[in-house]
Predict the structure.
Amino acid sequence: MGAALDEPVLLLNRLYAAVRIVSARRAFSLLCKQLAEVIAVEEEGMRTYDFADWCDIADVRRELEGDQYRWVQTPRLKLPVPPVVRLFSYDKFPKLETKLSRRNIFARDEHRCQYCGQRFRLKDLTIDHVNPRVQGGENTWENLVCACYKCNAKKGGRTPGQANMMLIRKPQRPKVDPNRKLRVGPVQFRSWKAFLNNAYWNVELRES
Ligand SMILES: [Zn+2]
């Protein structure tokens, strides 16, 4: 049961944009306080439930699709862990920002030198300023990439154009924490898919 309360739940803001992953414990607390509603992607389409509705249909759901959900035992009844909850208020959770750090840049670039395209171990990687600092390049997601020592040295204080070295892809700010890896079940996968469409989500589908 402890594990079910730790189950990941996708939190949406009022405008249905993914904000972050919270634990089922946190999701139930938001539902109880009527700060959020459940969003379930079902065969007939997307449905919303307030906490009372979600409790009311718990028994029926357990009979029909009990094996598809994780269940949390409360004093009164067993409740399915909702795959997605949506906040009614917009401001409480600002959109999740990923910290600009070496670790996160390496993770975003998948430990791949963005010039030669090869994968390296962490200790063999450097951070390269695409537009070099000597030419006014800043520390931003769009200007920092993973590079191997060899490519970094070869490029020196030049832009990719000046060095005639192409980036294998354009560096961008990640939408969510690139280090985050989650294992989710089929219900979450089906429901989350509707709200997440970016490649930074490293969702691994768990066998049911
Ligand atoms: Zn390289």
The longest strand covers residues 36-42. Residues 198-208 have pLDDT under 50 and may be disordered. The CA atoms of residues 48 and 208 lie 24 Å apart.
